Amino acid sequence: MPIASVNPATGEILQTFEPLDAAGIEQRLARAEAAFHGHRSTPFTARAELMHRAADLLDRDQETVARTMTEEMGKPLTAARAEAAKCAKAMRWYADNAEALLADEHPAQADVTDSGATRAYVRYRPMGPVLAVMPWNFPFWQVIRFAAPALMAGNVGLLKHASNVPRTALAIEELFQRAGFPEGCFQTLLIGSDAVEDVIRDRRVAAVTLTGSEPAGRAVAAAAADEVKKAVLELGGSDPYVVLPSADLEAAVATAVRARVQNNGQSCIAAKRFIVHTDVYDRFTSAFTEAMRALRIGDPMDEGTDVGPLASRQGRDDLEELVEDARTHGARVECGGDRPMGWDTGWFYEPTVLTGVTPAMRIHQEETFGPVATVYRVADLDEALALANDTPFGLSSNVWTTDRDEQERFVRDIQAGGVFFNGMTASHPALPFGGVKRSGFGRELSGHGIREFCNVTTVWIG
């Protein structure tokens, strides 16, 4: 079946591609293996020069790249430009810092004397070709945050991108080629999900990283474990956004709107469950609802659009089912809750606020991937923390409080890979990113991310 690029704002098929056959996959795997043997031996300075060149090209081509992303998955054009700029920033960060992050580690001689060594140290060595199975929601950023550290560490990359963003996938491959990376250092595999397991099991693939759904993560992790290969998973999230009485309420509301509808609400780290102390609940909910209702829905190519379409018809339909289930079981729709009038083509859904959500509703436990927020009232910090942790996911969290004791309590007890105080969750190249529970394992970005796909080698000299 052809791989199609479809504009979610109109439903128009933009371009189709034939997936690789067995011979095409074999050619690219052989090319990756050959490229690794050369790339792994290049000095950091040479890799950094190439990575800087790629970042410069991305900056130069930002408008073209942004429009391709918007056409394929519907994010507002302004957000697509920002994504391209963020990618260039991360590429430069790894180009400038990889050598120091992977420098040999030398324990104090006194600590290893009784091992019989005259000298001992740790070296980080690249593993080989790494397969990345990536999602559509941040189609450049998700790939670059894997590719930049992997290539700078001396690995080579194989990308199986989401099937609805093939043009973006090919643009990333072309970017690294134009920057001068040797043939085979980064390749896109236009294949369906049914071909992924065979690639993971191929002897030439050293490891796999996936960002995506929990079912996809389970399948990839199972295949990797069966082959005894390293895997890193970043899966779903149902991030809490806790507002306590000491919060700057105006800032908390404004940030809450951005945190919920970023990328049209299609972000694993978007705030989804708004847990508000009873002392400020009424004021927060009223202001938050009005701000969500005021957002402008429209063509993502329009500079004034706040919320564009969902990336797929299925995604829109799944979101509708969650809202209808909640409504049927007694939730109150404060705003939204339907397809917007005047947008009969494309996969649009209104920014929506639900209150009165209970554990009997699917939306209480399932991830909402779209511009739908649930707001809960809690009596105190203990109830807020318990509700924040009442989810199978644990990607990140947001807490609004200026009380140091409350902050320390959340740092200690929140079940998440991150906690952001008085702001919204965001990824940054210098900070580790990843989750706990069913949000996955392993870390991306920072020194932790670049070391995930390195062979941590003990060197002992007698």
TrEMBL record:
Domain of life: Bacteria
Record carries keyword Glycosyltransferase: no
Keywords: NADP, Oxidoreductase
Domain Aldehyde dehydrogenase intervals: 3-459
Gene3D superfamilies: Aldehyde Dehydrogenase, Chain A, domain 1, Aldehyde Dehydrogenase, Chain A, domain 2
SUPFAM superfamilies assigned: ALDH-like
InterPro entries, sorted: Ald_DH/histidinol_DH, Ald_DH_C, Ald_DH_CS_CYS, Ald_DH_N, Aldehyde_DH_dom, ALDH_GabD1-like, GABD/Sad-like
Pfam families: Aldedh
A GO molecular-function annotation: aldehyde dehydrogenase [NAD(P)+] activity
Similarity comment: family membership: Belongs to the aldehyde dehydrogenase family.
NCBIfam families membership: PRK09406.1
Annotated PANTHER family: SUCCINATE SEMIALDEHYDE DEHYDROGENASE [NAD(P)+] SAD
Name assigned to this protein: NADP-dependent succinic semialdehyde dehydrogenase
Organism name: Kitasatospora aureofaciens (Streptomyces aureofaciens)
Gene name of this polypeptide: gabD1
